[in-house]
Amino acid sequence: MIRIKTNAEVELIRESALLVSRTIAELATLLRPGISTHALDLRAEEFIHDHQAIPSFKNYRGYPYATCISVNDAVVHGFPTRNELREGDLVSIDVGVYKNGFHGDSAYTFGLMPIVQEHQLLMRVTRESLYLGVEKAVAGNRVGDISNAIQEFTERKHPFGVVRELVGHGVGKQLHEDPQIPNYGKKGTGPKLRENMVLAIEPMINVGTKDVIYDADGWTVRTKDGKFSAHYEHNVCVKKGKPDILSNFEPISANESANAHLFSDY
Ligand code: MF3
Ligand code: CO
């Protein structure tokens, strides 16, 4: 069952999604070689609590941390660890918050300078594929139009692998609601999009093979070939003509460009 939100509910999801964006932006100021992803996780949890919210992921189906931080060949659902980050690392930070009865859920991938060109391209293509998918989140389209836009751009124009096992989703009172939003598929297929559906669109793209394996921790998803992966996620409200993006990368990319340790396109 796909829930249609009221305008008031959309505003509450926007508030949660913007808090996620601000949390990731805060972590962008701390990212540098030598910091551990565990330290980033603790700061995120503190920041979320300071803003009268709760981390959505902690205890979700037993997930033990506030954030998922997936480094290099880790695709998603990476456990924060005590290991120190290093130059050349790709760090995907995925955050969810629950506030006023609604979840926000967004992710962004950072590169610790210097970043090799192939990984720069991976970040750019993954982010662009997200926006091409988001553009299709308009009333009257179908879920497959979003999926197809992401896959076509990523697989046809670039030799990158689109992860199949994990998908985007509806978001609202629950972190994961219907519909599922694969990052591959056919135009004109799947559930029809209606005004005020709220979607989490989240391409996970690999430099090499699309195939993934699970870590012994039961959560961390890694590329099968050990090559690097990127992940960006927005929450989007379906509208007539033009989607309304509820999360916001602007505060994140502003702090990214201001941090000399981070690779930035801008
Ligand atoms: N953004 C991810 C998702 O939507 C984060 C979920 S992590 C979990 O699936 F710990 F909550 F499972
Ligand atoms: Co999500």
The secondary-structure element order is: HHEEEEEHHEEEEEEEEEEH
Question: What's the tally of helices?
Answer: 5
CATH architecture: Alpha-Beta Complex
Structural class category: alpha+beta
Name the bound molecules: 2-amino-4-trifluoromethylsulfanyl-butyric acid, cobalt (II) ion
Which CATH class? Alpha Beta
Strand content: 15-25%
Number of domains: 1
pLDDT < 50 stretches = none
Q: Could you state the CATH homologous superfamily?
A: Creatinase/methionine aminopeptidase superfamily
Envelope shape = globular
Roughly what is the average pLDDT, rounded to an integer? 98
According to DSSP, the number of beta strands is 15
What are the SSEs and their pairings?
Blueprint: H1 7-30, H2 37-50, E1 54-55, E2 67-71, E3 74-76, E4 90-99, E5 102-111, H3 117-135, H4 143-156, E6 161-162, E7 168-170, E8 177-181, E9 198-201, E10 204-206, E11 212-214, E12 221-223, E13 229-231, E14 234-237, E15 244-245, H5 250-258
Antiparallel strand pairs: 1-4, 2-4, 3-12, 4-5, 6-10, 7-8, 7-9, 9-14, 10-13, 11-12, 14-15
Helix pairs in contact: 1-2, 1-5, 3-4
2-amino-4-trifluoromethylsulfanyl-butyric acid is lined by residues 57, 60, 63, 68, 77, 94, 105, 107, 169, 200, 233.
Summarize the structure.
The chain is an alpha+beta fold. Helix content is 30%, strand content 23%. Helix 1 (7-30) crosses helix 2 and helix 1 packs parallel to helix 5 (250-258).
